[in-house]
Amino acid sequence: MLIRQALTGLKALLVFTLLLGLAYPLTMVLIAQVVPTQDSTIRNADGKVVGSALMAQPVTGDDWFYPRPSAGDYDGLASGASNLAATNPELVAAITARRTEIAEREDVDPARIPADAVTASASGLDPEISPEYARLQIDRVARETGLSREEVTTMVERNTKQPILGFIGEPRVNVVTLNNDLQNTPGTAVDVADPEN
């Protein structure tokens, strides 16, 4: 009886060792060889690394698209939210100040400003904004860069990701890749050295 149980255990150990210790890792290696590399590195026209499509960057100047606010000043080491409740007076004041600033910068009614424009993401590093916030910025960016509204709109559309399978998630615009497109567009008035300047 004991020998039979030991043999059953050894057989199970052998099967699981082959499946999980050999077959599964080899399958993952094979998939990694077949699937194209998902490199998030963003390079400018000269090939210089200027950022990652996965991490928001701060911008200054009216010739750029602005990302969502960041509770940690876009510092990867300080990633996180403010953890302030929705009714916290400090958060309410910050949202009000951001809404006023954006309304003045974009020359729009404060009621038109979407929530993601005035609130930070949970990580504070989210590189994506809503299409509504991106469209709100098109006129200013076109005016400041010397591009036509149509050219800037096309860039926004090109950097817009649709929901997975058409229904999982929301449409979103990657501001980092969008600003890189602006930087690499010939004939713009954008400082081509760095989006932070």
Automatic annotation (TrEMBL):
Pfam family, any one: KdpC
Species of the source: Brevibacterium casei S18
Role this protein plays: Part of the high-affinity ATP-driven potassium transport (or Kdp) system, which catalyzes the hydrolysis of ATP coupled with the electrogenic transport of potassium into the cytoplasm. This subunit acts as a catalytic chaperone that increases the ATP-binding affinity of the ATP-hydrolyzing subunit KdpB by the formation of a transient KdpB/KdpC/ATP ternary complex.
GO CC aspect terms: plasma membrane
Listed GO MF terms: ATP binding; P-type potassium transmembrane transporter activity
Lineage of origin: Bacteria, Bacillati, Actinomycetota, Actinomycetes, Micrococcales
Topology in membrane: Single-pass membrane protein
Family, per entry: Belongs to the KdpC family.
Keyword flag Hydrolase: no
Subunit: The system is composed of three essential subunits: KdpA, KdpB and KdpC.
Keyword tags: ATP-binding, Cell membrane, Ion transport, Membrane, Nucleotide-binding, Potassium, Potassium transport, Transmembrane, Transmembrane helix, Transport
Annotated compartments: Cell membrane
The protein, known as: Potassium-transporting ATPase KdpC subunit
Superkingdom: Bacteria
